[in-house]
Design brief:
CATH architecture of the largest domain: Alpha-Beta Complex
Strand content: 15-25%
Largest sheet: 10 strands, mixed
Structural class: alpha/beta
Protein name: Glycosyl transferase family 2
InterPro entries: Glyco_trans_2-like, Nucleotide-diphossugar_trans
Helix content: 40-55%
Order of helices and strands: EHEHEHEEHEEEEHHEHHHHHHH
Low-confidence stretches: 221-226
Number of helices: 13
Mean pLDDT: 88
CATH topology of the largest domain: Spore Coat Polysaccharide Biosynthesis Protein SpsA, Chain A
Pfam families: Glycos_transf_2
Keywords: Glycosyltransferase, Transferase
Number of strands: 10
Distance between the termini: 66 Å
Shape: globular
Radius of gyration: 21 Å
Number of domains: 2
Organism: Akkermansia muciniphila (strain ATCC BAA-835 / DSM 22959 / JCM 33894 / BCRC 81048 / CCUG 64013 / CIP 107961 / Muc)
CATH superfamily of the largest domain: Spore Coat Polysaccharide Biosynthesis Protein SpsA, Chain A
C-alpha cells in the first residue's frame, strides 16, 4: 500500500549548483516525513542535475524530472505540478532553504483549520552581507477563536503572494486548471490572484521559517535593478488576472481588489524602473481603467486608501500622480549616492 503524501514540495532547478544541496537538505530533513520532493531540472548546464540524482539515490521521496529544454521558471513549476500527487503543494526556490519543522507546522494548521491556502513568515539572507538579517512576519489577522480568515476580496491583498513559502490545496489548482504564466516575470503574483478566489480559508504561520537568499543574478534581483521588460511584465500579469476574473464572472466582486493590486504594482515599478518606463506604465494603466470602467469613485473610494484614490484619479486624468515630494525624494537619494562616492 502506497503511503499518503501530505505535501508535494515543488523545486524548480536551473544552474544553482552552489546552493542546491543546502536547499534539498533542508527539505529532506523536515520533521514531517510524508512528503514528496518534485525537482525539475530546467536543462541546467552546471552540476545541478548530478546533485539532484545524488539526493534521489539517498532519499526515495525525491523525484527528478528533466525538462527537454530550458523553458524558464514558470514552465518548470508547471511541470512539477503535473507530477505532484500530494494533498497540498508547497513551493520552494532552489537557492532558498527552510527551518526543519516548518512543513510539519503548516500541515498541522492546515488540517486543524481546514485551510486551503497558507502563508508563512520569511527572512532574507544577503550573500553580500551575511550578518544582515531582515525578517518579515505576516500579521496573523485571524480572530484567535478561529485561527483563519475567509478568502475574500478584502483579504486577497493582505497575504504574501511570493511563490517561495506558498502552500495551497492541490485539488483547487487542478479543478480550475491554474498554472503559472510562461515567459513573464511576476508570475507568482498571477498565481496567487488566480487561485485565491477559489479558496475558502487562509491561515498564516507567523514565523520567519522560510529563508530567501538574496544574490546577484537571481530573477528577483533583475526586477529590483530596474529591468524595463520585467516592469512591463507586471501589466501583462494584471491583464491576465483581469481576463481570468472576467471569464470566471467574479470581476465585479473583486474589482476593488484589482484596483489595489494595480496601485501596489505601479508604486513598486516606480522604485526601480526608468522614467520612460514609468510613463509607459501610466499610459497603459489609464487605458485599462477607462476601457474596462474599472474605477468608479463614488463606489470605490470608501474601500480605498486616500493615496490609492488620489493615484487612480490622476491616472484617469492621464497624469502620473507624482507630486513634487516624489521628485524631491528622488533628487535627495541621487545626491546621497554622489556623496558616498
Amino acid at each position: 500500500m502506497t503511503a499518503p503524501v501530505n505535501i508535494s514540495v515543488l523545486v524548480p532547478v536551473y544552474n544553482v549548483e552552489p546552493y542546491l544541496a543546502q536547499c534539498l537538505e533542508s527539505i529532506c530533513s523536515q520533521t514531517l516525513r510524508e512528503l514528496e520532493i518534485v525537482c525539475v531540472d530546467d536543462a541546467s548546464t552546471d552540476g545541478s542535475l548530478s546533485i539532484l540524482r545524488e539526493f534521489a539515490e539517498r532519499d526515495p521521496r525525491v523525484k527528478v524530472v528533466q525538462a527537454p529544454e530550458n523553458g524558464g521558471l514558470s514552465r518548470s513549476r508547471n511541470l512539477a505540478m503535473s507530477h505532484a500527487v500530494g494533498e497540498y503543494l508547497f513551493l520552494v526556490d532552489s537557492d532558498d532553504w527552510l527551518e526543519t519543522d516548518l512543513l510539519e507546522e503548516m500541515y498541522r494548521r492546515a488540517k486543524a483549520l481546514d485551510a486551503d491556502r497558507l502563508a508563512c513568515g520569511f527572512r532574507y539572507y544577503y550573500e553580500s552581507a551575511p550578518d544582515r538579517e531582515d525578517r518579515f512576519l505576516p500579521e496573523d489577522m485571524a480572530p484567535p477563536e478561529k485561527g483563519w480568515l475567509p478568502c475574500t476580496p478584502e483579504t486577497i491583498g493582505k497575504i504574501h503572494h511570493g511563490a517561495g513559502g506558498m502552500m495551497i490545496r492541490r485539488s483547487i489548482v487542478e479543478k480550475h486548471g491554474i498554472r503559472f504564466p510562461e515567459g513573464v516575470a511576476c508570475e507568482d503574483l498571477y498565481f496567487h490572484y488566480a487561485v485565491f478566489p477559489w479558496c475558502r480559508r487562509v491561515c498564516v504561520v507567523s514565523r520567519a521559517a522560510y529563508v530567501y537568499r538574496k544574490r546577484a543574478g537571481s530573477i528577483t534581483s533583475g526586477f529590483a535593478s530596474g529591468s524595463s521588460l520585467q516592469s512591463l511584465d507586471y501589466l501583462t500579469v494584471a491583464e491576465l488576472v483581469l481576463k481570468e476574473w472576467k471569464e470566471a464572472g467574479i470581476l465585479e466582486e473583486y474589482r476593488t481588489a484589482f484596483l489595489k493590486m494595480l496601485v501596489m504594482g505601479v508604486r513598486n515599478i516606480r522604485k526601480y524602473a526608468p522614467h520612460a518606463v514609468q510613463k509607459e506604465v501610466t499610459r497603459k494603466v489609464t487605458d485599462m481603467l477607462r476601457q474596462e470602467n474599472l474605477y468608479r469613485p463614488a463606489e470605490d473610494d470608501a474601500c480605498l486608501s486616500r493615496r490609492e484614490g488620489k493615484l487612480l484619479k490622476a491616472w484617469m486624468g492621464g497624469k502620473s500622480g507624482l507630486d513634487f515630494s516624489y521628485y524631491w525624494k528622488k533628487m535627495r537619494k541621487a545626491g546621497a549616492r554622489l556623496l558616498r562616492r
